[in-house]
Structure formats: C-alpha cells, structure tokens
Design brief:
The chain has 279 residues and is of the alpha+beta class. Helix content is 37%, strand content 20%. It contains seven helices and twelve strands. The protein has a seven-stranded mixed β-sheet. A five-stranded mixed β-sheet has the order 9-8-10-12-11, with helices on both faces.
Length: 279
C-alpha cells in the first residue's frame, strides 16, 4: 500500500537533531500566540453582519501574528514566510513557515471551541516540523519528521480499526468560496461515505479533525481542496503517528495533489475505494 512522501525515505535524517533542537522555540511561539487569542476569545460573541465577520477575522489574524511571526522568524531566520494562509500549491526551494495564526478563526469569532494556532516548517516542499496548540484545553500536538508525533509529550498512534463500517470519518471546507466542482465533489464524497462508514463529520477546520486521526480518536479525514495551511500540520502528525497520507487514489500526497486522504492504516484501502470512485 502506498503511504506518503511525508515519511522519511531512509532510516537516516541528517537534519533530525537540528529540527528537534528547534522544536521548543516553535512550541513556545505557538503557545504564546494561542494565549494571545485566548485572551480575545468570547463564547458570548454574536456577529450581526458580513462586514463585522471579516473585520473580526482580520483583527484576530493580526493579533496572533504580532506574537507568532517575530518569534518564528527569530527561531529560524533563513526560512521564508508565506503571507497568504489560503494559498495552495508547491513553493520555491528552501525552507518556509506555513502558519495558521487562528486555525478555525470562524469558530473563534462565533464563540465556538474548535480553534487553535499552528506552525509548520516546510523544507523542499515537505513538512519537517509542526506544532498545533489548542488554548482552550492547553493541549499541544507536535511532530518532527522521523521522530514521531506527540500530544502533550505522549506519543500518538492511529486507530486500529479494520472495517470502514465501524469508522468515524470526516471532511470539510478548506475555505469559503470554493468552485462549484469542488462543492459537487464534497457532496458526492459525503454521500458515498455515509453509505460505507459509521459516522461522517463535516466541520472546520481540517487540522482539528486531523489531530484526532493522528491520535486514533477518528479513523479518516479527506478533503478535495488543497489549502496548505489547513493540511500540512495534520498531515505530518498523522504520518509520524503511523497513518498513511495520500491523495484519494492512494498515491503519495504532495502540495500539488488534487485531493487529500489521511486514515488509520487498515482502513486506507477501503477509504480509497470509496473516494476514488467519485473523483
């Protein structure tokens, strides 16, 4: 079974020690940004207009980035910075920070609990280090390529389920305003999975479903759109936990793939069979 180009292709990673040494600074930066956003979180928030919604989203991003960006740039001065968190596709050679300063920003501004802060270091278009922090629970997820995935320091492993009919699976929007064809594929895939899986969740953001796949609390996640900031952190966490990360046809996932699938190992082939039939 094809797994993922995210996982090391050899047993030796010459930069592993360097990346592990960088991890504490990234954890500190992401947690500091998360605490900033926790101070701005209001479960009683009620927005009344589209303009108010956009204003709140932009204000949140600015508040988090004011803490996150300088800390990450100081920790890795040579890495580039991707300005637009909604971009897709491959990046130029070298190292890049891919962040979502408020992953699940739409939830934060509506007083919902599914949000956090993420930062992922990309090298040669492969995620090599990631941190996800959930301020409301104080939970930190982290992974370094070749060194495993962790939740508050406890190593993660994916679900051991073997039948899709017993699985909790999920998908969701990558961003507002997707194409009509993407919406059509989403609808078809949800219908298909409803016919094969036990429960299907449709929610945002992607990262908060992917951390559950990495932890074995969910069994699969797929997405038709390829927004980098919503997939890279969770992709590395799932891969380092031991789960396959591919496109919907079971081929190695890259930033130029047309679809994304991460799952429990024994369910991967079954999920591919369902999803590849509609793409």
């Amino acid at each position: 079974m094809t797994t993922s180009t995210i996982q090391p292709t050899s047993g030796h990673n010459p930069q592993l020690a360097e990346d592990q040494a960088l991890l504490p600074a990234v954890v500190e930066a992401v947690r500091a940004a998360g605490k900033q956003m926790l101070s701005l979180f209001d479960p009683a928030a009620r927005l009344q207009s589209y303009d108010a919604l956009l204003s709140a989203i932009h204000a949140n991003d600015a508040a988090s980035l004011s803490v996150l960006r300088p800390a990450l740039e100081a920790a890795r001065p040579g890495a580039g910075w991707v300005e637009d968190e909604l971009e897709s596709g491959a990046l130029p050679p070298g190292e890049w920070w891919i962040t979502d300063p408020v992953e699940g920003n739409i939830n934060h501004i509506h007083g919902l609990s599914d949000w956090g802060v993420t930062a992922t270091l990309l090298r040669g278009n492969r995620p090599v280090l990631t941190v996800v922090y959930l301020p409301l629970t104080g939970t930190t997820y982290s992974a370094v390529l070749g060194a495993g995935a962790y939740e508050n320091g406890v190593r993660l492993s994916p679900s051991v389920k073997t039948e899709l009919k017993s699985a909790m699976v999920g998908t969701g929007q990558a961003r507002p305003g997707e194409s009509q064809d993407t919406h059509r594929l989403m609808g078809l895939s949800v219908t298909a999975m409803l016919e094969h899986a036990l429960v299907v969740r449709v929610s945002v953001p992607a990262t908060l479903q992917l951390i559950q796949v990495a932890a074995g609390r969910m069994d699969a996640f797929w997405q038709h759109s390829q927004v980098r900031s919503g997939l890279l952190a969770g992709a590395l966490l799932v891969a380092e936990a031991g789960g396959p990360v591919t496109d919907m046809h079971g081929q190695p996932w890259t930033l130029e793939s047309e679809g994304f699938l991460a799952s429990a190992p024994a369910l991967h082939g079954q999920a591919v069979k369902v999803l590849s039939a509609i793409t």
